[in-house]
Design brief:
This protein is α+β, with helices and mostly antiparallel strands. Helices cover about 30% and strands about 30% of the residues. It has a 5-stranded antiparallel β-sheet.
Amino acid sequence: MLTIKDYVLVETLEEAYKLNKNINNVILGGTGWLKLQNRNIGKAIDLSKLNLEGIKEDEEKYIIGCMTTLREIEKNESLEKLTDGAIKESLKHIVGVQFRNSVTIGGSIYSRFGFSDILTSLLTLDSYVEMYKGGIISLKEFIDMKYDDDILVNIIIKKSKRKVGYSSFRNQATDFPVLTCGVALLEDKKVFASIGARPYKAKIVENTLEDFSEESIERFAKYVSGNLKFDNNMRASGEYRKHLTEVLVKRTLKKLVEEK
């Protein structure tokens, strides 16, 4: 059961940061995952008054506020066009619409869950996090950083030239994924895959294709599976996840090449 002793609707990020330095206090997002935990919270810190929701776009990038819901991102037509539908695909399987209407991008990314579809998908893009004290950090670097008392303020996605795709495998609809797979293809034949739910958090594997033949695509898929660690849990074995990685990487990359 989740128990909250005190609730604070903060006026500034500095106030939130100072409160968050206490290990018993917690920043609230949409609380979709938090409320499933069995823990006692001293002060629940609410950022709702700080205008940190919404998606801003200019010629170079998108800035997504940490309090923006997953559903808002899913429905954004500009992001859907930029990512060829990959962002939308990575979000639509997460529980249900009601859940995605409350869960925030800030909580989803800061938590760095192993099963996270959206983390896997964002890693295929030129993505960054903006921390209150730590500044702007690449998402690739951020996922391996230790948890601290800093506050994730924005997600930044730069409009770089790449084609991206996303796929996942679930034992049943809306369940946690058995495996998540994002693939990005750049203009210089550089390609990388982001694989999550292994059951570890998503990790990037990069290489360069010799050409766009099916043999080259298959070699890359095997290269990806050979450079990642897989393990067992209640949903699947590590061996099965390794096999799925090759299947999903090959399938997703082949589609990107065909659409190129």
